[in-house]
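Tokens in:
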């Protein structure tokens, strides 16, 4: 039986006492129909058996990046609410992190069996993320370049736009 090249290489590196799933995870080889079988085989791996069945391929890649030191675990603190735990890679931009916050919040709402709707456009227009008193206003900056490290804690802060110039970059925290 001919195995894909990536599976052959991983079998050569694997130790005989530690079985590895023989799945090719390249984007060109994975389709929606294959996603369920890939997740099932990953859940059988002793290192990844703590994942939920609703895990996405991107989340698995991010968790592997944490183990390799290429990603961070951070917390988003919210006033009077539970914190949102996130896993982000070092190359993630602030804009991508905002999308991860939205996805994590949707997942939290779904787990609580709630039908809460959040207008994220309004949230990002009226609030900004703050790290150690510094506002994260530039959405295109990589998080590793602004000082976010492993186990960093960010918070939501309200801001208001200046009256003379209501551009996105002229935000002021109250």
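Residues out:
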């Amino acid at each position: 039986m001919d195995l894909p090249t990536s599976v052959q290489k991983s079998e050569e590196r694997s130790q005989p006492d530690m079985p590895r799933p023989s799945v090719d995870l390249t984007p060109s080889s994975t389709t929606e129909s294959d996603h369920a079988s890939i997740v099932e085989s990953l859940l059988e791996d002793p290192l990844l058996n703590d994942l939920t069945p609703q895990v996405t391929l991107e989340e698995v890649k991010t968790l592997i990046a944490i183990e390799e030191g290429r990603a961070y675990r951070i917390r988003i603190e919210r006033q009077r609410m539970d914190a949102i735990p996130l896993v982000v890679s070092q190359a993630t931009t602030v804009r991508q992190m905002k999308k991860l916050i939205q996805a994590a919040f949707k997942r939290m709402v779904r787990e609580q069996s709630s039908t809460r709707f959040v207008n994220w456009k309004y949230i990002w227009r009226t609030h900004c993320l703050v790290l150690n008193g510094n506002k994260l206003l530039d959405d295109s900056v990589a998080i590793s370049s602004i000082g976010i490290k492993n186990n960093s804690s960010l918070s939501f802060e309200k801001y208001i736009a200046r009256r003379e110039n209501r551009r996105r970059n002229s935000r002021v925290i109250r």
